[in-house]
Amino acid sequence: MRRRNLIVAMAATIASGLSLAGPAQAFDSGDCNSTFGAANVIDVDQFSKDTGTSGRVDFGDHMHLGGAPQGTAVACWSSTGRVLLKGYLFSDPVDGDYADVKAVIDFRPNAGLGERREVSIPAPTVVGGMFHLPMDKIANFNIGRPGTTFNRVTIRLFADGELIDTIIRSRG
User: I need a labelling partner for 77 at 20 to 30 A (CA). Which of 11, 85, 135, 151 fits?
Assistant: First the structure.
């Protein structure tokens, strides 16, 4: 009987911990509509990238559980040629060791020069004997130029300076 109570208590503890973690989140068409207005959104592209623990870097939205994003990032394309990219860059540990991770994001127009943005998370620092580690960082870019139509977003994910993966999203 005592063992059964212990098992029930452990199961209840695990279940309550999972319920506190909350549901996966996702950037979606609602983000696009609130930025551009629903009538101006012509394409919505939800996605995430899990490079596995060997890749050490992911892109998507919360929760980030088991080394994988549970929610999606979004690329939104407007009728005026603008593009919105919203997502989180995540750092994955390997045997408790974190890498310097970075996302290099190129926004390509139909003609002319593009735009480049970067988001990075440094490896943890030790201050006063304690680790200070940002586990995630938001990428939230609304890119546009009068008379220019942006039609492609390329996201390159790096860990310790090494290219791990490339994500490409295109208009329509």
Answer: 135
